Amino acid sequence: MERGWGSLAELGEAGAAQEEETKGGGERLEDPAGATLQGQEQEDRLREVNLSTQRLRVLPLAVLSNSTLESLDLDRNKLRRITGISKLCNLKSLILSKNEFVDFPSEIQSLVCLERLELNQNQIRIIPEGVFSHLSRLKHLRLNNNRLCALPRDLAACGGSLQYLNISNNLFRTFPQPVLQLARLQEFHVQNNALRQLPRELFQGQSLKMFKAGGNPLREPPTEVCAGGIQQIRNYFSQLQHGLGQEDKRVKTMFLGASLAGKSTICRSLKQGQSKLVPKEERTVGIEISEFQMEDFTFLFWDFAGQLEYYMTHHVFITPQALVILVINLHMYQTNDKTFKELVGFWINNLSMRVPNSVVLPVGTHVDCCQEQEVAEKTRDIMARITAMLAERKSNLAHFIDNLEGSEEPKFYVDQWERLKEMESCTLTAKNLFWMCFCQILNLVAVNCTDHRDIRKLKTIILKHVKNEELFPEVVRVLPPVYRQVEAAIVEIAQSEEMADHGMMDLQYLLSKLSQHKHLASLDRELLQDILRYLHRIGLIVWYEEIKHLESTVFLQPTFLITMFKLLVRHHLVQQLESISVETLIGEHATIRDRANWVWTFKSKAMLCHQAVRALVKHQLCSEGRWDVFEEIMGHRPHRGRGKLFSLLEHFELCLEVKHTEALNPQAREFVPGKPWETTRSQGESWYLFPTYLNQTEEVSEFWGGDHAEDLHIRAYFSPEIPEGFFQRLLVKACSFYSTHWVAKVTCLLVCNGKPLLIKENNQRAYSYLELRSRKPSERTGFQFAWDFLVAVVLIIQKLAEEWPGLHVCVKTPCRTSGCPAEFLWPDMDGTGATTKEDVKTCGTCGHRFGAELLLPKGEPGVPSLCRSCAQGKEG
Ligand SMILES: Nc1nc2c(ncn2[C@@H]2O[C@H](COP(=O)(O)OP(=O)(O)OP(=O)(O)O)[C@@H](O)[C@H]2O)c(=O)[nH]1
User: Fold this and answer.
1) With contact defined as beta carbons under 8 Å apart, do 831 and 799 qualify?
2) According to DSSP H, which parts of 641-725 are helical?
3) What's the rounded Cα separation, in Å, for the pair 355 and 322?
4) Which stretches of sequence are listed as region Disordered (predicted)?
């Protein structure tokens, strides 16, 4: 058999050197100090036993006979009971997480010294009374990921000691009252249950420091209040005491779908209660937002433009807990794969990745342009394909799970397995175990937008759905009257004569304006800010506290924000650039020649200099009659201060500041793992790269010099696919680390310490991956560096992927034998160095043996965590 590239022989010398090192390490144990250490270690071992991941079904007798045992770790086994555990009466810590318990192991009541008990990730439904009354020293209790809907009353007996309690991911519908007796509780996790209400008493004491309740259909206090933390919840309850809570029924409704589907037409017709055809010339640019009342529900309509260029901004605005109206032009729809993907599949796929628990109502338009039978056929076809698509996704996930479970060393894949299990439950259809775990696609409604009866029918159907509490448990929010008063005051300020129509206002000025309102005069600023945060979370205003340049700006009209985005993220930007008037050029100290240069650089490199951006923005604002906001959003001085626009675009990774248009600043300080790194703020004009506008060029492959068979080579696979815009955002993130880089539409070359790393995007159905390649080091010492670089980029990919909760990414190394289809799956990268410790890996398919360095990062402790902090450092 022919040997593959990079076989064991390639690492001959390196392997021998390592063996030497291991021997040297062994000798050290024999010195006297080492012997004392060993004795101490042995003693500790008698008190602490770790039997995690052993596939145990019963407790080993040897363990039960050791009555001095203080800590027993049985994490990730197959235990259903632990008969005999009561003998271990000195036990202080008992870990039984990720086993197969259905019944609570009551023998635990004898372990009166217990301080830490972990029973998370089991199947426990009921905890009997009479266990916790014996555990008065218990400080730390994990019961998350079970099937619990109540806690025993005697948990109160741990009131003097319990500091940490986790009951997240269970089935609690009402708040477990015994928790209120836990006077010393500091950290409480109750996420992902079915709670509607939290008791005021929980927040009355001062002990609680950390509280998490996301993923509950909370009405009182609403999720958007809880997201503000304990102090905001306390403020909320103290306001509720002053006046009766009012019910607010509000639904964020997002209109999505391909270009010219009829989104704006439906949106406007629903608002006006009659057919309101939108002329083609009035296409939506960016997003339009409007508010509208149906019965006692307030609908906040978000109408998204269908052109792909704008999709880059969609991820900012597509948020969970909304009704999504997916508009499909039935006249354009053909019963084939291609149109399904373009008009329907693309949108559902993106929603299932970004907001896996969304409710989607497909609406077919242009019925008047179709035959009656055609409408029925197309409706059936769309629904059947959606069902098949979701089924395929589910079976893919099941397949990934099976693969991990069947792997030789499942313990290396626990994190990936858990994440997949979580996603699998999200893609099931309604009425699942957890209220939030559905991606519900409702039946398609076919309408003729020219007929007002169809509009009325659609309105009735929408109302019926939003009244369904199973579908929309969070529509109702209980609010203290002051919340509504602040909202009303803001609307008044926004509409006042004094207010410029861009609706941007300085935070301090807004707060003082609010204090002038008669009901709000006595409110303190902290409470007012809390309410502004709430209004930001429900999408009524925008206040990005987390962006430094925008922390003191409140956007009272969120649409203006989109106006800002669309100045630079839009259709036909080149034509806009070409049409900048001579007056504007002169105003920016530029010439017609400069303009030609800008157009050339933009077309070839997707870059604009600061001066070009200023001229472009000025040109567009003038043509829209909004000249007044130019300085506000671009900053006052042409070459300094970058203004609000760039802060926004950079925050959402839509553009990247670069220092040189040629070789992209080859002198820049680079990021080298392990060494301090800072961005260079060199002189000269800034250029901005807009990756959305990149074209395919040969430049990257020229600098890379073509793939070599012996390259180190890995792939990050994406399921169901690489989200639109993902690669461009990765590019912005990665290039801001590695300031020497070359980029093109689907490829990017990063350089670190003079070594190149290539990233290539391949997005095909059922075969979507990012390929990462670096040259095989010529010396053994070079492997560490090469893998550090690769791992750092993988971690940036994983970090970015977290923004798509329904996305699964897994990293594999293809077998190095040419033609062998096998791949080596990467273990979880949890920062503990869970990489390979073996020297040799054998391919299960072709049987070739390879030096492990050629396939996976070696398990040098600390390296992955170092890379992790680097990847996350930029997040700041
Ligand atoms: N005959 C007929 N025309 C419709 C119907 N619905 C929409 N239209 C027309 O289709 C065209 C596109 O409608 P829009 O509402 O602008 O579509 P959109 O989805 O908002 O399009 P973008 O703004 O490009 O994203 C307009 O000219 C509408 O008048 C329908 O049911 N029947």
Assistant:
1) no
2) 643-651, 699-704
3) 9
4) 1-44
The verdict on the CB of residue 264 being under 6 Å from ligand 1 is yes
Tell how far the Cα of 283 is from the centroid of ligand 1, in angstroms. 9
Query: Per-domain residue ranges for the chain?
Result: 42-216, 246-476, 480-560, 572-651, 687-873
> DSSP of 197-251, one letter per residue?
B--GGGGTSS---EEE-TTS--BBTBHHHHTT-HHHHHHHHHHHHHS--EEEEEE
Q: Which of 266, 277, 326 to mutate to test the pocket of ligand 1 (most atoms within 8 A of CB)?
A: 277
Q: Report ipTM for this prediction.
A: 0.98
Lookup result for tokens 């759905």: 465
Closest residue to atom 4 of ligand 1, CA basis: 366
More reliable by pLDDT, 606 or 641? 606
Highest average pLDDT, of 297-306, 685-694, 812-821, comes from 812-821
Count of other CB atoms within 10 angstroms of residue 139: 17
Distance 262 CA to ligand 1 centre (A): 3
Q: Which residue's C-alpha comes closest to atom 3 of ligand 1?
A: 366
What CATH number does the domain located at 246-476 have? 3.40.50.300
Vertex 811 angle, CA 807 and 812, to 5°: 140
Exposed, middle or buried: residue 873 (CB in 10 Å: 0-12, 13-18, 19+)? exposed
Pick 158 or 11 by higher pLDDT: 158
**Is 280 a pocket residue for ligand 1 (Cβ < 6 Å)?**
yes
In this structure, what is the dihedral angle of CA atoms 369, 373, 375, 378, given to the nearest 10 degrees?
-130
Ligand 1 contact, 365 CB (< 6 A): yes
Q: What is the CATH number of domain 687-873?
A: 3.30.310.200
Element (H, E) at 510: helix 507-515
Give first-to-last CA distance, the chain, whole Å. Answer: 51
Angle 706-712-717 (CA atoms, 0-180°, nearest 5)?
95
Out of 393-402, 432-441, 699-708, which region has the weakest mean confidence (pLDDT)?
A: 432-441
Please tell me the CATH superfamily of domain 42-216, with its number.
Ribonuclease Inhibitor (3.80.10.10)
Give yes or no for residue 261 CB within 6 A of ligand 1: yes
Which ranges of 243-317 would DSSP assign to H, the alpha helix?
Answer: 263-272, 308-317
Q: For 72-85, how does the pLDDT look when each residue is reduced to its tens digit (9 = 90+)?
A: 999 888 899 999 99
pLDDT for res 45? 59
- Spatial neighbors of 675 by CB under 8 A, at least 6 apart, are none
Residue 430: per-residue pLDDT? 35
Give the rounded distance of the alpha carbon of 220 from its chain centre. Answer: 26
Tokens of 764: 């095909």
3-state SS, residue 851: strand
Q: What is the helix (H) or strand (E) element at residue 772, kind and residue range?
A: strand 767-774
According to CATH, the topology of domain 480-560 is: Arc Repressor Mutant, subunit A (1.10.10)
pLDDT at 664: 46
